[in-house]
Write a structure and sequence with these properties.
The structure holds 2 protein chains of 2 kinds. By secondary structure, chain A is an all-beta fold. Chain A is built from no helices and 11 strands. Chain A has strands at residues 4-7, 10-13, 19-25, 31-38, 42-51, 54-57, 64-70, 73-78, 87-94, 103-104, 108-112. In chain A, the strands form 2 sheets. In chain A, strands 2, 4, 5, 6, 9, 10 and 11 form a 7-stranded mixed β-sheet that branches. Chain A has a 4-stranded antiparallel β-sheet with strand order 1-3-8-7, with no helix packed on it. The N and C termini of chain A lie far apart (33 Å). By secondary structure, chain B is mainly beta. Chain B is built from no helices and 11 strands. Chain B has strands at residues 5-7, 10-14, 19-24, 31-37, 44-49, 55-58, 61-65, 71-76, 85-92, 99-101, 105-110. Chain B starts with a strand and ends with a strand. The chains are: A mainly beta, B mainly beta. The A-B interface holds A 4, 35, 40-45, 90, 92, 94, 97-107 and B 9, 30-31, 33, 35, 40-45, 48, 50, 88, 90, 92, 94-97, 99-104.
């Protein structure tokens, strides 16, 4: 079984709809992250959480919110989706430490029409 | 804000050739990582380098961290079609809290 899972894997929605992307991990890591990937722009950090009670904004948090329901679960919400939020979204985990090596889920391809 | 640049952006070579891709910054990093991402999948960690001047080898891949810990290179010897993918570098500061990815080098190895 995969250590980091994301649901759904693909989603097509319409402008203005509320969308939730979910991430679960069995690695026992305390740190979790949400990234979006756009062609030519690499991975950009949306939100990150170092433990259940810690939530931090990343580089591009506007239009997004997150919830850390448990150590193993971290969800990303788009309150009112817009077309420029069409992208690949990745969840990642890491263990506490100075190297912050990241372990990624398989990604969610989101299309906002 | 720490930024990482990668070059080249795209690289297409024949199987058996050697290649080097680069990751550069004006900032100093406590560690630098290389990931490979294949289509439809998330990035997978290849290596972490932490000491200036460090060289690490992973089969046909050689990773080097610059002496000043601002840049890194990835050299692939005798490339194979299975090396095709997006190569991403990522840097972390001393506490691992500021973590940034470069835009990636997309490598195509042709048979």
């Amino acid at each position: 079984d995969a250590d980091v899972t994301q649901t759904p894997r693909n989603r097509i929605t319409k402008t203005g709809k509320r969308i939730m992307l979910e991430c679960s991990q069995t690695k026992g890591h305390d740190r979790m992250y949400w990234y979006r990937q756009d062609p030519g722009l690499g991975l950009r950090l949306i939100y990150y959480s170092f433990d259940v009670k810690d939530i931090n904004k990343g580089e591009i948090s506007d239009g997004y919110s997150v919830s850390r329901q448990a150590q193993a679960k971290f969800s990303l919400s788009l309150e009112s989706a817009i077309p420029n939020q069409t992208a690949l979204y990745f969840c990642a985990t890491s263990v506490r430490g100075r190297y912050n090596e990241q372990f990624f889920g398989p990604g969610t391809r989101l299309t906002v029409l | 804000t720490q930024l990482l640049e990668q070059s080249p952006q795209f690289l297409s070579i024949q199987e058996g050739e050697n290649l080097t891709v680069y990751c550069n910054s004006s900032s100093v990093f406590s560690s630098l990582q290389w990931y490979r991402q294949e289509p439809g999948e998330g990035p997978v960690l290849l290596v972490t380098v932490v000491t200036g001047g460090e060289v690490k080898k992973l089969k046909r891949l050689t990773f080097q961290f610059g002496d000043a810990r601002k840049d890194s290179s990835l050299h692939i010897t005798a490339a194979q079609t299975g090396d095709t993918g997006l190569y991403l570098c990522a840097g972390a500061d001393n506490y691992g809290q500021n973590f940034v990815f470069g835009p990636g080098t997309r490598l195509s190895v042709l048979p």
